[in-house]
Amino acid sequence: MRTRLAWLLPLGLAVGCASTQPMRQVALxxxxxxxxxxxxxxxxxxxxxxxxxLKPKQAQFADYAACLERDGVRTGAALFRIDKVPAPSxxxxxxxxxxxxxxxxxxxxxxxxxxxxxxxxxxxxVRRGMQYTLDMFHNAGDPPVRYLLVSxxxxxxxxxxxxxxxxxxxxxxxxxxxxxxTESASSRPLGDAGLxxxxxxxxxxxxxxx
Length: 210
Known about the structure:
about 10% helix, mainly beta
């Protein structure tokens, strides 16, 4: 039994270490795309009314992104096709807040020629619980958009993602109960890696829940 436990202990430690490995970063020291057109296009998630229980799964930014060089600066960039749902539509980028790191994302909406129609910095994201979300509305008559480009917001990378929490404990003390509350704060790094989901749906439909 001791021999078996001695063998399992290192395995358990190895599994524990693997679960806390940092987010994977996009390699910027290898081949780099010289233009957005050279990036692989990823499909945005589109809800299926026939399968309402089918939900998107968060994946790492590095799973979608590659190195892109613009104006002499290299950065990770992920390109998504978002015009499968006709206008009016809502495109939502969801960023997961994670102890290993939160992607400080910048978003650019592009037309069919990969020209920027409009852009959004990380300041425009709204934090809801353990996620940051950005809803982008595309209405009939707006300049047409076909692609969404996600890259790190250089002005926010290196910052801190602050979370406040509270916990209440109840203790029975003879004739009654004593309640005690505590507050906690956690700091998570904002960087160029993290978890994300890109989805597009018709306007007016029920928002997706992750």
